[in-house]
Automatic annotation (TrEMBL), chain A:
Residues 159-192 are annotated as: Disordered. Gene3D superfamilies: NADH:ubiquinone oxidoreductase, 30kDa subunit (3.30.460.80). This is NADH-quinone oxidoreductase. Transmembrane segments: none annotated. PROSITE patterns: COMPLEX1_30K.
Length: 192, 144
């Protein structure tokens, strides 16, 4: 009835529009994706929207890829037509020291909130955004909590439920997966 | 869903608990990246059964709670469970006005089992009280 987008379809629309700015096309977990050079980000999203009928802005998010940089991902879906309900992912990698990509707000007004969230959570600057005010974090919050070097206070303050031994079993001390020992975590931890 | 938009295929609703299959192994609690599952239990001694059987201890579930105010719907608990106790059910309709009301205990998690697509449940599973219901047998021929 309704089919996912294939890589070839995505490439056929983006390659003429972007040329060298299209870095890679692939498929992950059943969804076609394209990696875009940061300076062509806005052009890529516009071309996908207009060329593939991807008029439904689904979400935009950041990913901390450590030394590779900060990734911005946008999910665009087709609200109708042969691909109704399916979509593609467009991705770009911003430089970690000064992460900046063009804003998509003029293409999708709804991107404004998502970019505000990615701005506060990852410190990514969206050039051309009308106002990157914090969306979810309280006033005066310091830092970007979804960066991997950010120490989450709740991980320190709250006991890990996995440490609980039901039925009174005894076990060697457990550490939650992915949470390093206290004092070894985060950039400025050594002296604090 | 409201409006004419189709639900994307990745949509997940809620995690249902087949309580009888939970062995209190704690794997879901320990794999959960945002610490939203809490389990408690106690030990009961079971007498020997059958020839050559020995008395043994079993863990009896006292509490199984998922905090949907924390859950990020990654599904790692569903994948981690080796005993077929956790399943996705496509019910998105459990919003609450107070974030504390998003903590759902085992009775509510168990009710969601009826929403799990029958093909997703293990073949031969018999749910308590489901036998006389109008619901088709969860076991049925295994779906692909």
């Amino acid at each position: 009835m309704s089919a996912p987008f294939e890589e070839a379809v995505l490439r056929a629309v983006l390659e003429p529009a972007l040329g060298e700015g299209l870095l890679e096309v692939g498929t992950a977990t059943g969804t076609a994706y394209a990696d875009i050079a940061p300076h062509r980000w806005h052009d890529a999203v516009g071309a996908a929207r207009d060329g593939l009928g991807l008029a439904w802005f689904d979400w935009l998010a950041g990913v901390d890829e450590l030394e590779e940089g900060l990734r911005v991902v946008v999910s665009l879906l087709a609200p109708d037509g042969a691909h109704r309900g399916h979509g593609v992912l467009l991705r770009t990698l911003a430089d970690r020291s000064a992460p900046q990509v063009p804003s998509l707000v003029d293409l999708f007004a709804g991107a404004a909130w998502h970019e505000r969230e990615a701005h506060e959570m990852f410190g990514i600057d969206f050039a051309g955004h009308p106002g990157l005010r914090p969306l979810l974090l309280p006033d005066g919050f310091d830092g970007h909590p979804l960066r991997k070097d950010f120490v989450l206070a709740s991980r320190v303050a709250r006991p890990w439920p996995g440490e609980h031994e039901p039925s009174g079993r005894s076990r060697r001390r457990n550490l939650p997966p992915g949470v390093p020992e206290p004092g070894t975590w985060g950039a400025g931890e050594a002296g604090s | 869903m409201s409006g004419g938009y189709p639900q994307p295929e990745r949509s997940r609703g809620v995690i249902a608990l087949v309580e009888q299959n939970c062995t209190v192994c704690m794997l879901c609690v320990r794999e959960c990246p945002d610490w939203c599952i809490e389990i408690d239990s106690h030990v009961e001694r079971k007498p020997a059964e059958g020839p050559g059987g020995r008395p043994h201890s079993v863990h009896v579930l006292d509490r199984f709670a998922i905090d949907y105010g924390l859950c990020m719907y990654c599904g790692i608990c569903v994948e981690a469970c080796p005993f077929d106790a956790l399943f996705w059910a496509p019910d998105p309709g459990y919003s609450a006005l107070d974030v504390r009301d998003l903590v759902h205990e085992r009775d509510r998690l168990g009710e969601w089992v009826k929403d799990v697509p029958p093909g997703a449940l293990p073949a031969g599973l018999e749910l308590p009280g489901a036998s006389e219901g109008s619901q088709p047998a969860a076991g049925g021929p295994a779906a692909d």
